[in-house]
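Escalated from tier 1: fe (iii) ion holo job.
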Amino acid sequence: MSLTLLENIGTLLTLQGAAQKGGRHIVEEDLGILKNHSLLFSGEKIVWIGPHRKIPTEFRKQKMKVIPAREYTVLPGFVECHTHALFAGSRSAEFEMRLRGKSYQEIAAAGGGILSTVRATRKESLAGLIKKTQERVNQFQRQGVTTLEIKTGYALDEKNELKCLKAIRELRGPRIISTFLGAHAIPSEFKNENEYLDFLIQKIFPRLKPGKNSLADRIDIFIEKGFFSAAAAKKYLSAARELGIPTTIHADQLTLSGGTDLAVDLESQSADHVLQITDRQIQRLSNSEVTACLLPVADVYMKCPFPPARKMIDAGVRVSLATDFNPGTCPSMDISLVGLLARLEMGMSLPEVVSAYTVGAAYTLGLQSQIGSLSAGKSADFICTKVEWTDLFYSPGQEFVMNSYSRGRKIFSSSTYA
Ligand code: NIG
Ligand code: FE
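Tier 2 regenerated the structure:
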């Protein structure tokens, strides 16, 4: 196996402390900030991290590629754990309607919203969807994203949801995690939520069973007034659980509708949005392994309050941050803006934000044993930048990644930085 050495790294952030603490109660020391250390990886995995010049003899004898890294800050690749990046069409006109006073739910009830993206996505070919989505994947990649979650949920019929799931498996670059969100809205072909969810269980779930040919890695449902109730979701998610498919929930975004409680009851990987939750749900989350995924840019676009991040973190909840990139409630892919809002509006410290976008997000996807932090045995997923770590999540829109690696493979090299 080929060995590669990142030699004498200017500043290395391992996030090992954050990983050991399970992403809770993060302080600066948990970032594992090291000077003049080196990182050695073999194939997909990190095999050693230690002080420069102290490479163990077993490795020193072997041939290796050496990358001088004295000018770099190196840290785990960012994990973008909640996107709806697979869709066709545009909803920019609806955004203007919302600014002129129509609500998200009113637009949806009139056949717009999610259902308007559904019409466009059903019409798009497999090749067209792959092309559009790959361009978005590339945009995330430029920002240091080495793992990217993508949900379906804009097709809502058997043929086209399968088309979307297949499209996700064709994407290249970062590690891609596919989430089946057939339960995003009730398509007009079905009378009620139960009829539609039963249809998904019968027709799509058999294709999602864990295994080599599985078309998805997890499933999601939008629990919200006008979409799916917690009672119907319970049956649906329990059926997934029985097949061994991990679950996540769009929970308590616009109203308190039971999503977070259900995530805890069913041991989902995460409860996402969670901005309407009360102290009771915060307590329950803190005593669970469910990660709260916070999506502040969507809150800005929706003119919603921000989630009570400070309260959650102080209570011991593990949080992650993500964009929620989608054509309706968050047309931005900017991960720096997410972190900046978390710092400006949600009282999160920079170490908390860095951990949320690495360790916390890895937990959200159930990948904490492989990614989110750097140590021997974990995946070689990291980014090299010339900026200091204190410059992260500070200047949205500025390119700061020089190159990035996923599973030991270079997936991005900046043309801005030589
Ligand atoms: O996370 N809340 C449900 N899903 C998306 C919005 C999807 C859309 O409006 O197209 C969200 O905000
Ligand atoms: Fe979402």
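The mean pLDDT is 96.
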